[in-house]
Amino acid sequence: MENHTVVETAKKVLDALYRDLDRLEVAEGVKGLRKAVTVEMAKYLIYLTESDGRIKWAEARILSEFLDLDMQPEDIYDFLDDKDHYAEEFEQGLPLLFQKTVELDNKIFALGGRETTCASEWMLAAYKCLGISLVEADGEVSKEENEKIRAYIKKMEEYLEERLLPGIVKKWVKRRAGDE
Fold first, then answer.
1. In whole angstroms, what is the distance from residue 23 CA to residue 154 CA?
2. Could you report the per-residue pLDDT of 29-54, keeping only the tens digit for each?
3. Any idea which of 41-50, 66-75, 100-109, 160-169 has the lowest mean pLDDT?
4. Largest interatomic CA distance in the chain
5. Quick one: which of 46, 83, 95, 178 has the fewest CB in 10 Å?
6. DSSP one-letter string for 102-138
7. Half-sphere exposure for 179 (CA within 13 Å, toward CB)
8. DSSP assignment of 63-74, as one string?
C-alpha cells in the first residue's frame, strides 16, 4: 500500500476513534480519553520505531503529525535510554485504555446501544494504521518491524474476540472477514 494512502487512512481512522471516545466520555462521564490514547499510542509507536534499532526523522514525524507531539529522533532515544528492556515490557501487556474501551463497549451494548462499529474496533484500526504508517515512513520496512506490528495487532484482535460480548463479537468478526 502506498504510504500516502496509508497516512490518509490513518488520519481518518484516528478522527473516527476520537469522535467515538468523545461520545464515550459523554455517555460514561469520564474525561481525558483523547489524552490517554495519545500517550498509549505514542508508547506503541516508540516500541515499533525501536524495533529495527534505528530511529529516523520520518518516524519521528509520524509521532508529531498524528499525535501532536513534538518529537525528534533524539527525544525518542532519550526516552528509550531511561528504559531498560522497553520492548520486552511493552510486549507483555495491552494498552489499558484499549482494555477499558472494550469494557465500555460491552456495557453500552448490554444496555441496548451500539449497532455499529464500537470504540474498541476504532482503536484497533488506529493501532493498525498508525503502525503501518510509522514502519513505512522511512521507506524501509524491516523484518523485525513487520513481525512486531503483526504480533501486537494479533494480540489485540485476540483480546477483542475473547472479551467482547457475543453479539458484538459476531458483528466484529463478520465485518473483519469482509475487510480481508
1. 27
2. 888 888 898 889 988 988 888 887 77
3. 160-169
4. 48
5. 178
6. HHHHHHHHHTT---S--HHHHHHHHHHHHHHHHHHTT
7. 8
8. HHHHH-----HH
Q: Residue with C-alpha cell 534505528? A: 54
Per-residue pLDDT tens over the stretch 118-137? 788 889 989 999 999 888 88
Q: Per-residue confidence at 142, pLDDT binned at 50, 70, 90?
A: confident
Taking the C-alpha atoms of residue 14 and residue 126, their distance in angstroms, rounded to an integer, is: 6
Helices 57-67 and 73-81 sit at what angle, rounded to 10 degrees? 90
- Helical ranges in the chain per DSSP H: 3-28, 33-49, 57-67, 73-81, 86-92, 96-110, 119-136, 143-163, 166-179
**Residue 175's pLDDT band (cuts 50, 70, 90):** low
CB 99 within 8 Å of CB 81: no
Whole-number Å distance between alpha carbons of 26 and 20: 10
Cell of 110: 448490554
